[in-house]
Amino acid sequence: MKLVNIDYIPGFEITDTLGIVKGEVVQSKNIGKDFMAGMKTIVGGEISNYTEMISSARKIATKRMVDEATNLGADAVINIRYGSSAVMNGAAEIIVYGTAVKTKEK
Q1: C-alpha span between 96 and 91 (Å, rounded)
Q2: Distances from the Cα of 78 to the Cα of 17, 57, 81, angstroms
Q3: Among 4, 13, 26, 58, which is most buried by a count of CB atoms within 10 Å?
Q4: Taking a C-beta distance cutoff of 8 angstroms, is the pair 102, 78 a contact?
Q5: Alpha helix (H) ranges present in 1-106?
Q6: pTM
Q7: Which structural domain range is residue 17 located in?
Q8: What is the CATH number of the domain that holds 81?
């Protein structure tokens, strides 16, 4: 599966547009790690537990989008965009979406 955040794939022609596909996940850390992250805000610096949480959530959301595109028969997703929001203290929503397409080499 080819994944790009532009509206074309160099060297390929889009032969069919199958529709918008998306993947989303809401993920949180456990209370112990959330407490330690709160402590980190006092001294400053990267909160690596949250960086890891967001990275993991992004991977899950991307896989869900790819699975949806695969079910449509796509071999690529173009115009991919990511979004995130805090849904509650210590939890974040990640959404990824794009256009599922079929392609052929030029």
Answers
A1: 17
A2: 10, 20, 9
A3: 58
A4: no
A5: 31-43, 48-72
A6: 0.83
A7: 2-105
A8: 3.30.110.70
